[in-house]
Amino acid sequence: MVRNSEFYSILTDVAELTKIVNNVNAQFDNTAWRSFMQWDVPQIDLTFGVLSKDYDISPMAAVIDTNAPKPDLGGNGINMYYDSMPSIGGKVTFTKNDFRNIAALQNTALGDSQMVDKLWSSVDRVIRGAHNRLNQMVFSGLTNGSIVINATNNPSGIPFSLDLRIPAGQKLKAGFNQSTKAAWSDGTNSDPVQDLIDMYQKSVTDKHPFGMYLMSLAKWNSFCAHPKVKSWVRNRMDSSNANRAIAPQEVQRELDMFYLPPIVILEQSYTQMVDGRQVAITDGFDEDFVVGCPIGYLGTIKNAIPASILAGVPSTPDAAFTYLEQNRFALLSLWDAQTIKHTLELEAVAVPTINVPFDIYTLDTATAAS
Fold first, then answer.
1. How many whole angstroms separate alpha carbon 142 and alpha carbon 122?
2. How far is CA 221 from the centre of its chain?
């Protein structure tokens, strides 16, 4: 099959493909993980190290005699741990049938635009998949304290896990500081507002006050509908009408006026390919959890230089390489003349890590404290 149309030439023209890749990737300049992570410096070795601080509290200087030696005040607790980075990636393939359909489009009025749309959506699919995986890693890591990749959320890949070192004492459960301990699903005995107050107060007492709560949209909606929350808001508003409807905006306003950190609502959903079909997965930001964390970056995404760069692999008419995310994502456009197949493949070696685990608190609202 002769590939003589503009569509095919774009696939293996590095300059043209790079333009498309960069334009598509620009859509993800504000993707969710960028609010919490920065790229680390690319490295050659696949093993990474993470430096985290235990304490930021300086002890008072000692009152000593003029000629006495100065006592050691100690240093900030510094932890270092090491692990290996996994690869993340995916591909889309143009088959014989796709090429027949594309050739047929060339004879229609909208043929050129539809062919470009096909290419654009294919590039979007592989790039979006990489960003979605980083989002899923960040949010599952924040809620669970570790990144766990398994057969459920990664049916086409390998298992992987990374403990992000959030202290066990900061992984809280519903009612942890109340005499009656109950999950938030118990509308009679649980007290979600008090849990948020206690969660923040614990961080203040620990000298690690967090700057915001993270909550899924589903959890926020159920929080606002909780009988104890609505009652708390009515009391704050001096409303004597026990049946007065309470809007989510009123809940947020009263929490703000109580000088609690702001609640940031997250809504992330992901899919995976299983037996050729897209299947929804739910283990991004776990809706059973509320997270307290600093405002700003929590860590870095460790990453390695693509092997194609290290090996100095040149682009050819049948195999064109282009790179994005400052050379952290490698995209290969590969033509197989024998099978009449063209593949767009993206690969990156990357994993999110947290540098401030002692500043992060999680609250499991579905499980009562013991």
1. 31
2. 21
Percent of the chain with pLDDT over 70: 81
Query: What's the distance, CA 115 to chain centroid?
Result: 32
User: The tokens of 78 are what?
Assistant: 């510094």
In order of 44, 101, 138, the CA distances from 141 in angstroms are 25, 43, 5
- What pLDDT, in 10s, does the model give residues 148-203? 888 888 888 888 999 999 999 999 999 999 999 999 999 999 999 999 999 999 99
pLDDT tens digits for range 320-363: 899 999 999 999 988 888 888 888 899 999 999 999 999 999 99
Instruction: Point out the least confidently predicted range of 83-92, 99-108, 156-165, 182-191.
Output: 99-108
Other Cβ atoms closer than 10 A to 330:
22
Whole-angstrom distance, CA of residue 319 vs CA of residue 336: 9
Alpha-carbon distance of 132 to 37, in angstroms, equals 14
Q: How many residues are there in the chain?
A: 370
Count of Cβ atoms closer than 10 Å to residue 38 Cβ: 12
Q: Which amino acid is at 365?
A: T
Q: Which tokens hold the place of 39?
A: 């790229």
| C-beta separation of 130 from 301 below 8 A | no
CB 246 within 8 Å of CB 224: yes
305, 296 in Cβ contact below 8 A?
no
Cβ distance 142 to 285 under 8 Å? yes
Could you give the maximum distance between any two Cα atoms of the chain, in Å? 95
- Separation of alpha carbons 272 and 126, rounded Å: 12
Closest CA to 270 of 89, 132, 117: 132
For residue 87, give both structure tokens.
């690869």
List the one residue out of 220, 202, 230, 227 whose CA is nearest residue 369: 202
Which amino acid, 54? D
Dihedrals phi, psi of 179, to nearest 5 degrees: -65, -35
DSSP 9: H
**Phi, psi values for residue 107, rounded to 5°:** -95, 10
Q: Are 146 and 162 in contact (CB under 8 A)?
A: yes
